[in-house]
Amino acid sequence: MLQKRMFSMLSGAILLCAATFAVALDSDPPIGTDEARCQDGVSKTLGKFMWSKAKCMTKCDSITPQDPDCLPPYGGTTISCLESAEEKMAKKMHRRCRDAENAGKDACPECYGGTAGTCETFVQDELSTVAALVDAQLTLLLCDDSASIDNLSADEVDCRDRVAKRLAKHAAGIGNCLRKCRRSEIEGETDGSCAADDCASSGFPSAGCNTKTKKCVNRLTEKGYIKVIRSCPDKPDCLPEPIEAFVAPFANLAGDVDDDAFCYP
After folding, report:
1. DSSP character string of 139-185
2. Which of 55, 83, 128, 196 is packed most tightly, with the most Cβ within 10 A?
3. Which phi and psi angles does 184 have, rounded to 5°?
4. First CA to last CA distance, the chain
5. pLDDT at 222
6. Rounded distance, CA 63 to CA 66, Å?
7. Do the beta carbons of residue 61 and residue 161 sit within 8 Å?
8. Residue range 248-253: mean pLDDT, rounded
9. Do 59 and 69 contact (CB within 8 A), yes or no?
């Protein structure tokens, strides 16, 4: 009886292994460890780049408000600040995404090369894309208030500079939520989607978003609105909309970064 039971268990195990192997053959192979590390580094570094860019712009605005050098196409010390930030972030991403030709192993995801030719050009393209998106939002925030009755008061300058930095931090925070989800997804430990459309659209996750990611994004969105409102009791008159309306576009910016960073071959 025991022999029959053991034979039955062994037969079941063989069938289970065969079924598992068949499923594995039909599934796409998981992304390599080095490639996953590269994507994670790109996502994290682009979040830091948003913060660095906001700091360069607000530093200029706090010293010389309404100065054209503080906004695109930039000028003076703002240019050197931005160039330094971009160079630093590019080096960080290159270290995480070393190509076979310069490191003896290929850590650049195929989808990066397919998008822009090589990992190096992909990194530069992403920095340019993120810079343009941040420029578009912060240019609206750091608007020309010279036509208002009180021109641009010191409190209004302080308000918009604090909000600009908080928004960049908010985007980086949303990016971290999505990044953690992507890590879990690769390890098969998610119960829902990690896609930006499901988890970060305007900062409000859909029902299909991974549970932990949903909680993470919801918590940051709530904090983001509260912090932005508290940072700006006296907003510049040139802003036609409530200051907290900038929170959603920065959540979407985090989603755009995630979509690009975590492409799959």
Report:
1. HHHT---TTSTT-S-HHHHHHHHHHHHHHHHHHHHHHHHHHHHHHHH
2. 196
3. -65, -35
4. 51
5. 95
6. 10
7. yes
8. 95
9. no
Chain position carrying tokens 């998610």: 190
In contact, 91 and 202? CB cutoff 8 Å? no
User: CA-based angle 73:78:84, to the nearest 5?
Assistant: 105
Among left, alpha and beta (phi > 0; psi -120 to 50; other), residue 47 is alpha
Query: What span, in angstroms and rounded, lies between the C-alpha atoms of 256 and 43?
Result: 10
Higher pLDDT, residue 265 or 148: 148
| pLDDT of 137 over the 50 cut | yes
Strand partners, 209: 193
Q: Which residue has the higher pLDDT, 18 or 36?
A: 36
Higher pLDDT, 97 or 139: 139
pLDDT of 95 = 85
- Choose between 110 and 59: higher pLDDT: 59
Separation of alpha carbons 152 and 65, rounded Å: 8
Q: Indicate if the alpha-carbon torsion angle 220, 95, 112, 27 is positive or negative.
A: negative
Sign of CA dihedral 102, 32, 173, 175: positive
For the residues 214-232, what does the mean pLDDT come to? 94
Task: Give, in order, the Cα–Cα distances in Å from 261 to each of 12, 26, 155.
Answer: 42, 25, 38
Q: In this structure, what token pair is assigned to residue 94?
A: 């290159």
Q: Residue 105: what pLDDT? A: 59
pLDDT, position 112: 85
Contact 190, 181 (CB under 8 A): yes
Q: List C-alpha distances in Å: 227 to 132, 166, 246, 252.
A: 25, 8, 12, 18
Give the CA distances from residue 158 to residues 134, 162, 165, in Å, rounded to whole numbers and listed in that order: 19, 6, 11
